């Protein structure tokens, strides 16, 4: 279980460091992601994540996981997390502080644990949109869908 914990700690560190090429090596060949969007490929996941977070300042914090090794080569885990995603530039843009869970499965391949599936659920996201002229709009969203809908509306104003 310690190796799986290290794998997940490495994942969040590499995301925050924007170490995209190293991040890709953490996923199983048949990796599948389900969250704000979905993919069945680790490379595509990294491309999409790097595109959306390339200019953001991010901080991810993990809490104690519920891990279960289900066989010598398979495991599951649920990780409570908190994150900050700050996409402001020159005082304009989005700032989000979120809370949720990573739901994951792992496989052991060639002696190393890899992330096989990942699903992110959000239970609370505190958002601020900083607009030109100094106006700030606030919203607390209680799901990923609510967050996406609100940010989409704000971007059209």
Structural features, described:
With 157 residues, the chain is an alpha+beta fold. It has one domain: Nuclear Transport Factor 2, Chain: A (Roll), CATH 3.10.450. Helix content is 29%, strand content 49%. The chain has helices spanning 2-17, 20-24, 42-53, 144-156, and strands at 27-34, 38-39, 57-62, 66-71, 74-86, 93-109, 112-130, 136-141. Strands 1, 2, 3, 4, 5, 6, 7 and 8 form an eight-stranded mixed β-sheet that branches. Strand 5 and strand 6 (93-109) form a beta hairpin. It is elongated.
Number of strands: 8
Q: Can you identify the CATH class?
A: Alpha Beta
Helix-strand pattern, N to C? HHEEHEEEEEEH
When the domains are counted, the total is 1
- The CATH architecture category equals Roll
Give the helix tally.
Answer: 4
Radius of gyration, CA atoms, in whole angstroms:
17 Å
Tell me the structural class.
alpha+beta
Q: What is CATH's topology name?
A: Nuclear Transport Factor 2, Chain: A
The amount of helix comes to: 25-40%
Percent of sequence in beta strands = over 45%
Shape: elongated
Distance between the termini: 47 Å
Uncertain spans: none
Mean residue pLDDT: 94
**Largest β sheet strand count, sense and barrel closure:** 8 strands, mixed
